[in-house]
Amino acid sequence: LLSGRTQIENGSVSGGKVTYIERFNRTYRNELLDLYLFQNLDEVREATYWWMMEYNEQRPHDSPNDLTPAECLSKNTGNSIYELST
């Protein structure tokens, strides 16, 4: 995860994407990193994996009409010429 400061200084993210990434970072920190005392990086990776599964596939999000990101992706990729990897 990158800090908003790095993204702004490097110009790698523009406009509303900075706000989105900073909100994600805050949510990730509040819901996972601040709640546990991890013993090693493997524990962080394992907890992050399961948190991301819940975040992307089970939890509705405000911006895409209360759909999960996975539902939003499958609903809106019908017009795409690109294939989704699974």
How would you describe what is shown here?
The protein is mainly alpha-helical and 86 residues long. It is 58% helix and 0% strand. It contains 4 helices and no strands. It has helices at residues 4-10, 16-33, 41-57, 69-76. It is elongated, with a radius of gyration of 15 Å. It starts with a helix and ends in a 10-residue tail after the last helix. Residues 1-10 have low confidence and may be disordered.
SSE diagram, text form:
Elements: H1 4-10, H2 16-33, H3 41-57, H4 69-76
Which percent range describes the beta-strand content? under 5%
Low-confidence stretches: 1-10
Instruction: Determine the structural class based on helices, strands and strand pairing.
Output: mainly alpha
Taking the alpha carbons of the first and last residues, their distance comes to 23 Å
Query: What's the number of helices?
Result: 4
Q: What Rg, in angstroms, do the CA atoms define?
A: 15 Å
Oligomer: single chain
Question: Globular, elongated, flat, extended or rod-shaped: what is the shape?
Answer: elongated
Mean pLDDT: 75
Q: How many strands appear in the DSSP assignment? A: 0
Give me the strand/helix succession.
HHHH
The biggest beta sheet, please? none
